[in-house]
Structure formats: C-alpha cells, structure tokens
Amino acid sequence: MPSSPPASPSASASASASARTGTGTGTGTGTGTGTGTVRPSTRHAGSGDGPPGAAARLFLPLIALCTAVTAANIYLAAPLLPLIARDMGSTPSAVAWLASVAQLGYASGLLFFAPLGDSVNRRRLVAVLALVATAALLAAAASAGTGALAVAVLVASAATVVPQLLVPLVAARAPSDRRARHVAAVIAGLFTGVVAARVLGGLAGQAFGWRAVFVGAAVLTAVLGLATAYILPVERRQRQGPLFAGLLAIPGVVRRSPDLWRACVRQAGMYGAWSALWTSLALLLADADGYGMTTAAAGLFGLFGLAATVVAPVAGGLVDRFGAARVVRSAYLLAAVSVPLFWWGGRAMAALCAAAVLVHAALVASHIANQTLALTTTPAPATANTAYVVSGFAGGALASALAGPAYAHWGWGGVCAVAGAWLLLGWTATAVRRAG
After folding, report:
1. Cα–Cα distance for residue pair 282/291, rounded to 1 Å
2. CA of 151: how far to CAs of 91, 130, 245, 291, in Å?
C-alpha cells in the first residue's frame, strides 16, 4: 500500500463517485447502514489503519495472492471435467453442471458472508472461512460420486468469499484518485487465479489425477487464507442489529442507487457471457468432434486468460481518468465482437485465440469499472459489493447451467448463442431502466 494516509471512506467515496459518474451520488460512510460500527482497537485505530511494518507492505500483494487462490477454487472443476467424467463413468457434457454448482455456491456464500464485512471481525471470519474451504476441498478429493463431489464443491465455493470481504477494505484504504487501480490489483489476482485453475489445474490433473488437484488447492487455501487473516488490521467491532442485517438491507441499497443497479445488471450480463464460453471451452477443445486435445493441452489454452491480468492495471487507470460508464461501454463492445469470433473459433483456432483475448479484456475492464462504482455509491460498501458480486456470479452460474445442455444439443454454436443472449440482456435491461 502507498505510504500516504488512507482516504476517509466517506469523503473519498463521495469524491470518487462524483468524478466517475457525474451524478454526485456517492455519500458513503463506509460503515454499513444498520449493520455495525467500528471502534478503535488496541493495535490499529479503526478499519482504515493497516498493519505495521513489513505486514503493511505485504497487505495488498498478499490479498491479491489470496484472491488468486480462492478464485482458482471456484473454477477448479472446469478444466478437469473430462477427467472427472471418465473417473465417474460418465461423459463430459453430463458433468458440465458441476461448473455451475461452483459458481452458485460462490454466489450463495457472497450473499450470506460478504455483507458481514460491515459488521464483524474480518480477521476471525477470514480464518474460519479458509478452514471451511480447506475441509470441503479435501472432501471433494475423496468424493466417490458426482453427488458428493457437487456438495463438496458447493461448500468450498461458498466459503471462498475472502476476497470480497476485503475489497471494500482495500478501496477504503486507497487514495481517492487511485482507488480503481488498487481494486484492479485485487482483480488482477482474481483473473490470475482463473488462469492458474485452467492451466495448472489441467496440467496437474493430467499428470496426477483430478483428486490431487483438489488436495493441492486445499493446502494453498489453508496457508494463504490464514496468512491473510494474520495481516489484517485488528478491529473491535460492536454489531448493531441482527447478524445478517446486511443481507436484509441489500434490496433497499440497490433500489436507492440506480448506479449500483446498473453495475449489477451489466456485470451479470458480461459475466454470464464469459462464463458460458469459458466453462464450456474444455468441452470443445477435448471433444473428438472439436479439437480432440488432451486435458493438459486444453488447459494450456487458459494462458490466454493472462490478457485479463495484463489489462487490469490499464483498466484501473482508465476508470480513474475517464469514468466507469465509458469503460463499461467499451468493454461491452469488445465482448460483442468476441462472440462471433468464438463461434468461428469452433472451426478456426486463430479465431478462438483472438476471441479468448478479447473476452478477457472485456470482462476485466467491465468488472473493475462496475465494482469501483458499486463500492463508492452507497453508505454501505460491503453490502453494495455483495449485491454487485452476487448478481455477477448468479448471472454466470445460470449461463453456465444453460451452456452445458446447449452444447449437448446444438454444439459450440449453442454456447455462443447463450453468451450473445446474456450480453444483449445485460445491456438492454440497463438501457431501458435509464430511459425510464
């Protein structure tokens, strides 16, 4: 983190929201309406103060690394679907629904746990969730059937919400003119984890089996989750109201903020399109009627996801300079171009490669712009962030659930149709709301 003192959440949220949206709607206090207050602790005063010494320098890098590992957990099953299917005596398309179970689990975890970032001790919550995710990943490795595997994946994904507990803290500690860049650092970690899940997961699965991949993920989750909990500021929080008051407040927070509503819907459309394509890609690459690749070779295709990691800091700078709305429009345009390229990529590898780069650039730019907007337009950043991320992952889970049957019935063209429909819905729904 920079050596300059952190910006006041209320002042910086208002300034940042006004600068980015031109509406002056940011009035955040950073505490969360009706969920709790933060009192100074014995070590660090308030939630905005960081850990001392070397821990302060490790704060942002370690959160980004923890984000990478937890994001990998969500997408761990996708590149391993052919191996899981073979082991379970099924077909890859018949177990494709496991990818949507992971995303649905993550969305559920976000819905219940992420709003607690406004009201409970984050250190304790991060440590507990890391241990629960570790246990669930180990259970997944020992699963004897797809039902048990689905339950384990659901629990592991629900518990790997640590990054979204910490993004509001990162945003609050950042200077107002660099907030999107700091959020971008965490998101870069997220997409690095997605790439690692596909590339390293595919390679390790081919070499050691899919169960070994889940064991390795469990070890990394335990180590990095507990390390991240250790470096967090010590907070003494006095909760006001029910434990899940933040969850109950989500509908009202979204209703009172048109900017937050647009961010939620647009990211659900963008993430759904990306998820339909990316979680189904292993089917196309490994299918004998597609490219007939091995799991390891198909996993290497995930290296194109590094485009998101490269684009993230650039997108953060563009949001800080030009505003969120312009960046989201450009991202949707890139994604719209990528869909026909993906369709063409069913027969031409060069088109598939170009589409993979474009869709990742579009997703990460849209995500940084929309999430920065979500964090700075309400007085309850953790609750608003929950609404935003749950919307995105719910859209992704539903699109993934439809992409599997679409591939089974209509092939790769059906998957591309699902992606295109999600983009169209995400953009037209917000356009209608704005006009109204």
Report:
1. 10
2. 19, 17, 27, 31
